Amino acid sequence: MRRLTRSLIVASILFGASSPAFADITAFVGTTSTPTNRPVRGFALGIGLVIIGFEFEFSSTAEEPLEAAPALRTGMGNVYVQTPIAILGLRPYFTTGGGLYRETLGTRSETSFGLNSGGGVKVSLLGPVRARFDYRVFHLRGDPLHDTAQRFYAGLNLSF
């Protein structure tokens, strides 16, 4: 009986001390600057456990044939580290991950694996709505026209 009581007490402390997971979704627009500035849009779905979180994001950058700038689509799974609470309404984060990309220019295309890293900040607006600003550097494997791509975006983030 003592062992059961102790186990229940320990379990209560562990589960009571753990924090709930929070999910969020972000819709974003921005620019990919490699090799020239082109519009990018996408979305991200994430789940966070106070400091560490996981996210899937999809983005699509338009092709610019006159500048020989390829279209770039990415689907990345990321892990991020963020401050446990917002500081003056700001919640900075750093992220890294990997996934698939597809680069196309005219009839040429390349699909392979890529890595990304970067960071940003989530800015509290009203209740669960936040603005999100993000900078990423993508390192593309395989035979892309540009093996490094940079992206900056702004988006609306909804936490639930």
Report on this model:
It is a single chain. With 160 residues, this protein is mainly β. The chain has one helix at 2-17; strands at residues 22-32, 38-49, 52-61, 71-82, 90-105, 108-126, 129-140, 148-159. The protein has one domain: Beta Barrel (Porin), CATH 2.40.160.20. It has an eight-stranded antiparallel barrel with strand order 1-2-3-4-5-6-7-8. The longest helix has 16 residues, at 2-17.
Throw out a few tags for this protein:
mainly beta; 8-stranded antiparallel beta barrel; Porin; 1 helix; 160 residues
CATH topology name:
Porin
What is the average per-residue confidence, as pLDDT, rounded to a whole number? 91
Low-confidence segments: 14-18
Structural class comes to mainly beta
What can be said about this structure in brief?
Helix content is 10%, strand content 65%.
Question: Topology, pairings included?
Answer:
Blueprint: H1 2-17, E1 22-32, E2 38-49, E3 52-61, E4 71-82, E5 90-105, E6 108-126, E7 129-140, E8 148-159
Antiparallel strand pairs: 1-2, 1-8, 2-3, 3-4, 4-5, 5-6, 6-7, 7-8
